[in-house]
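Quick one: sequence plus magnesium ion SMILES, need structure tokens.
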Amino acid sequence: MIGVVVDGVGKSFRRPVLRDVRFVLRPGALTALVGPCGSGKSLLLRLVAGLERADRGRIEIDGEPVTGADARRLARLRSRIGMLFQNHALFDFMTVGENVAFPLRRMGWDEPRLTARVSERLHAVGLAGYEPRAVHGLSGGQKRRVGIARATAAEPALLLFDEPTAGLDPVTGQRILEMVRHEQRARGATALVVSSDVQAVAGVADALLVLHEGRIVYDGPAVLAAHSDEPIVAELFGRSVEARA
Ligand SMILES: Nc1ncnc2c1ncn2[C@@H]1O[C@H](COP(=O)(O)OP(=O)(O)OP(=O)(O)O)[C@@H](O)[C@H]1O
Ligand SMILES: [Mg+2]
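Reply:
Sure thing.
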């Protein structure tokens, strides 16, 4: 099980987005990351994955620096990460099976082993036998499931999931979160899951981080967050209560 350390990370574009972000992801735990729109959640995930460089601060995965790593080291670190992008980013021109196989092919898996793993992954997300299907014919929830199957195909030790429930109805969203939780637990993976569905994600997470104005303003057990005195945390929970009513 691997841990992640984010220490004093800052990143600006035209304005500062992340000012001083620090937290530790506990190995084998599912940590939820929430915060207002545009607070930098997706950016933070991309920084952890080494897809973007921080202006300052330090990020370590399993004791290895992501910040300042050369291309070869980054590639090795990334092979241990399963990422689900906010826009799910499936390849429309490939079948469902080819999408799930994609990270495995890149890692040079042989065909029989690859075929078996793709089948096992699709089965795990409730899409057994969907290999030959076209991506564009799938529903939003099915696409998200394919994304999860692909992100977990190579048995990554670190899962970085950006908005796995965006655009889904509450029931489907809840199922997807439970599936993410199940996959994470089954593998003892460390997971960071960004979600705008604050209460739902807090319900499946061990720990919760709240990002606001470039800093982590809540870092603690997910179950206690709803009672936090921090105004933005109360607001985030309150808002999702209103949205559901
Ligand atoms: N590559 C980039 N170039 C310029 N600005 C960027 C870039 N990446 C992120 N930003 C800016 O950083 C801010 C945070 O963006 P980010 O997408 O991380 O927010 P978010 O918290 O994920 O929002 P949402 O909840 O809407 O997904 C935004 O103002 C965005 O415009
Ligand atoms: Mg985002």
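Residues 240-245 have pLDDT under 50 and may be disordered. The first strand starts at residue 4 and ends at 12.
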